Every structure is written in C-alpha cells, then in structure tokens.
Amino acid sequence: MTMYLFTTALIELMMLTMMIHVLHYSGFTLRQKTWFVLTFASVMICAAAEYAVHCGYYSPKFALPLTVITVVQFSLSPLLAVFFSGALGLYDEAKRSLRYFSAGVLVQIVCAPFKLIFGFNEAGYFRGRLFFVYEAFYFIGLIYLIISMTVVGKRFRHRDAPTLVFMALTLGTGVFIMTVANIHIAYISIGISASLCYIYYNDLVQQDVQAELIAEQEKITDIQTSTISGLANLIESRDTETGGHVARTCDYVKEIAEKAREKGLYASEIDDGFISALYALAPMHDIGKIVVPDRILRKPGKLTPEEYELMKKHAEAGGDVVRQMLEGVTDEEYVRFASDVASCHHEKWDGTGYPRGLSGEEIPLCARIMAIADVYDALVSERCYKTAVPPEDALRIIKSESGTHFDPLLADAFIESRGERIRKGGERA
Would the pTM count as exceeding 0.90? Predict the structure, then answer.
C-alpha cells in the first residue's frame, strides 16, 4: 500500500503541476484553460477516490462515504474524455457529449443503493453483476478521446501519428490491467496520457503558430523587397543611370561577400544571413538621392564644389530615409544593416570619405563591400558625363585604391573573383 500511496501522490502532484502551467500559460483562451483545469482536476479526484477505496483501511462504517466517493469516481471517469475534447477546442462537440455521458451519472446514482455496479460489504469493495456498464462507459470515453485527438490533429500541419498511437496504448494498457488483473494503476496511465496529450497539443499549436509567423515574415520580407526595389528604380531613373546600376551592384556585393567567405575573410560576420541581407538591401544604397535636386542629379558635366557638397548629403539622408521606412516594421539589427549600407558606402578606408570620416574597420563591413561594388559599376558604366572604362582597367583602378579607398582584403577578393569571370568571358556589359 505504500507504493500505492506513492503513485497516487505522484499523480496528484503531476496533475497539480499541469493545472498551474495551464493557468499561467498565455497561449490559451480562458475557455480552453477552463476545460484543461476540469480535465486535470477530475483526474486528481478520481485518483484520490481510487486510493480511498483500495488503500487497505476499509471498515464497514465507511461504506456510505466510500459509496458516494466511488459514484463520483465512476461518473467522472468517462467524462475525462469529454473534458479533454473541450480543452482541445472541440467546444460544441464536448457540450453535446456531456448530455450523453450524463446518462452514465444517472445510472451510477440509480444503481448505487442496489449494489448493481459496485458495492461494499464486510470484506470491502466488490464488483456488481452490472459492472460491465461502467466498463462500457469507460471504453466509450476512451474511444471518444482517440476520435477527438484524431479530429483535432487534422487541423494541424505538424501532427505526429506515432505520438497519438503511443498515448492511446499507454491509456489502454492501464485500463486493461485494472480491468483484467484488478491492479489499480489506471489513473497513473490516465495521468501520464493526459500530460502527454496536453504537451502534444501544445506542441502542435506552437509549431503551427511558428509556421504562420514564418509565412507572415516571408510576406513582409517580400513587401520590403518590392518596396526597396521600386524606390531604388525610381531613384535610378531620376539619376539617368539607365544601365541597370541597381541590379548589377546587387550581383557585385553578393559576389564579393561569397568570395570573401570562400577565402575565410571576416568569418565571424559573413554567413548566409549576412549575404542574403546585403543582396536584399544593396538597392537602397543610393536612396538618399531622393533629397538631391534634379538639376544636380541630371547635370551632364562636372559638379561644382557647392553642388558636390549637396550631392554628398545623399549618404546621410539615405540612412535617415531607411530608418524611417523600416523602423517598427522589422528588427533593429536589420534596420541598422540597411542604414549602414545607405549612409556609409562613401566612407573610405583611410578616413577621407563622407559623411562621418570613418576609417578602417570602423566602417561597417556591409558598407565596405557596397563601396567596391558601387565604384566598380560606376567605372564600367557609361554615364551622361563620362564614357565606360574597360573591366580590366576598372579592376586596376580598384587595385590602386586598395588600402586608401577600399578595404584591401575585400578589394583583393573582388579583383580575384571578377578577374576569373572576365577571363571566362562572364563579364557583363
């Protein structure tokens, strides 16, 4: 009996823990919490009643209270499945089922005085000739629970059939042993199964919520990408750069980053996420030109010092525009990354760039990569104020400014990568 007391106490503690978790969990509605609490509280009541009847301290004078306790237990046991189906979200089905299973409660009450289902005598508890009625309600409840779990499982994308089978076997084994061998471990099985069902259901909810969040994030990312691309193309059309500057610089920054990773450069920063973000945000590098007047953007000749100072403002303005666009829509790290690309791509390795005069690795890595791509494309592209430079000459210029304008490691990586493409005939016009 000591072991019986221990297992009963374990069930009570397990169910109490589950109730506390449910009540403090923010992922369920009040209605769901109510059904879950009903389920776990009912297991506690039934397990305690089972122990009270079979604890070994029976006396004929306890026959009446034990009869009442057993009626409660036999009435609640089949209802556990109904309570749990309600907890799983089958509210209407659970309410309808309560009407049918309430017939079992009436049967227990009516049969109790006549000891037809169970009874107590001088020897203690015994099963009546209609005990099969209780077993029938119990097994109907078990089948109902399995059906409910199956129905609910179909609502989720991440359902796991082996888990459902395992829970059904655990529950069925406990009931079978109690019924055939008269060993009272059914509520251990029920308690374990109820906990597993709860954990399984909660896991299904979390997985589907996570999948929905990922899908929503992908939609937001697509919207961001389309917005960025549209604005970048708008700026490019104002700047009269008709050669696809935005698209080419996206390819160049990806090429530089991938070559740098291949060579083991800045390994702590350059990963798949970094490359994807840089490729997606590169079109925003000149978005600050939206504040530059058309007379300067479209001027065919060399800019005056005053005009050049106005042109330089596009870098700092770009960082501000990006922050206003993305802040509150995406995470801060992504916003900072985008802002760095826009505001720092005219900084120079030797500190003579603008707008802040950053030098060396003070310049964000994404902006150092962007600087090489931007200058290279400007060199090999024809503009209204200049002719295009051959790719080989453009690479020689990049090499000559390595360590002054450009990060020397990244410049060498780009020269190596682009040189390979030129030799293979892969350089784009």
Answer: no
- Calpha distance 429→418 (Å, rounded): 13
Pair (245, 362) in one structural domain: yes
Residue 129, CB-side half-sphere exposure with 13 Å CA sphere: 1
CB 56 within 8 A of CB 28: no
The predicted-structure confidence for 257-306, as pLDDT tens digits, reads as follows 999 999 999 999 999 999 999 998 898 898 888 888 888 887 877 889 99
Residue 155 has pLDDT above 70, yes or no: no
- CA 389 – CA 349 distance, rounded (Å): 23
Confidence of residue 110 (pLDDT cuts 50, 70, 90): very high
Distance between CA 11 and CA 191 in Å, rounded? Answer: 6
304: domain range? 239-423
Which sign, positive or negative, has the C-alpha torsion 331, 337, 338, 343? positive
Q: Tell me if 64 is assigned to some domain.
A: yes
- The answer to the question of residue 222 being in a domain is no
CATH of the domain at 104: 1.20.1070.10
Q: What is the 3-state secondary structure (H, E, C) of 233-295?
A: HHHHHHCCCCCCHHHHHHHHHHHHHHHHHHCCCCCCCCCHHHHHHHHHHHHHCCHHHHHCCHH
Asked if residue 342 is part of any domain, the answer here is yes
Q: How many domains does one find in the chain?
A: 2
Question: Do 97 and 133 have their domain in common?
Answer: yes
With a CB cutoff of 8 Å and minimum separation 6, the contacts of 422 are: 391, 392, 395
**Residue 274: inside a domain, yes or no?**
yes
Q: Are residues 40 and 79 in the same domain?
A: yes
Q: Are residues 18 and 167 in the same domain?
A: yes
Q: Are 178 and 184 in contact (CB under 8 A)?
A: yes
Residue type, 54: H
Q: Are 235 and 289 in contact (CB under 8 A)?
A: yes
Give the DSSP H/E element, type plus range, for residue 125. Answer: strand 124-127
